[in-house]
Design brief:
Structural class: alpha/beta
Number of domains: 1
CATH superfamily: HUPs
Helix content: 25-40%
Number of helices: 5
CATH topology: Rossmann fold
Strand order of the largest sheet: 1-4-3-2-5-6
Oligomer: single chain
């Protein structure tokens, strides 16, 4: 069962110059999953935005995880809006870490959604980007289902630039 998504948006202090109708990079949507590909995609998108005067929308869809089920049974007053609020703060730190000082120049949106691809498609409907710049993770050849990146590329009607990420080493902190 899919729950309705909760979202929050933080408007930038200044979006800078408004792009003209001839600008192929008028508005950039950058879906973020905090991977190495997302870092590379955000850095590239900010270079494009600087060159073309583009508006940048940094987007994250926070899905359910094991902590949600745990917190549901503890009685802790932790809700969907708390998850969205934390995601916005995380996006701000992410933006300023990858491109220092950039969080004030971008629109930041976080939603709570179980299907990341559908959440990105919905963000495309809201913002009408001319280009989506997104990172991808190295493909696991044993994978049967399409990756979220593949699902998004097939579902949206605007141009998509996919930036490959580096293979990340999994480290178990409990080991």
């Amino acid at each position: 069962m899919t729950e309705p998504s909760t979202s929050a948006t933080q408007e930038p202090a200044s979006l800078g110059a408004t792009a003209t109708a001839t600008n192929p990079f008028d508005r950039l949507l950058i879906p973020i999953d905090f991977s190495s590909g997302a870092r590379a995609a955000y850095a590239l998108a900010m270079r494009i935005a600087e060159r073309w005067g583009s508006e940048v929308v940094l987007f994250h869809a926070a899905g359910a995880d094991g902590n949600d089920e745990f917190l549901d049974h503890t009685g802790v007053p932790w809700g969907r809006s708390d998850v969205v609020g934390e995601s916005i703060e995380h996006l701000q730190r992410f933006a300023d870490t990858v491109v220092p000082g950039s969080s004030a120049r971008v629109r930041i949106e976080a939603v709570r959604a179980d299907d990341i691809a559908r959440a990105v498609v919905a963000a495309c409907t809201r913002y009408s980007p001319t280009l989506i710049v997104m990172g991808s993770r190295p493909r696991d050849r044993r994978r049967v289902f399409r990756s979220p990146t593949e699902r998004i590329v097939r579902a949206v009607s605007c141009a998509v630039l996919v930036v490959p990420g580096e293979r990340e080493v999994y480290v178990d902190a409990d080991a």
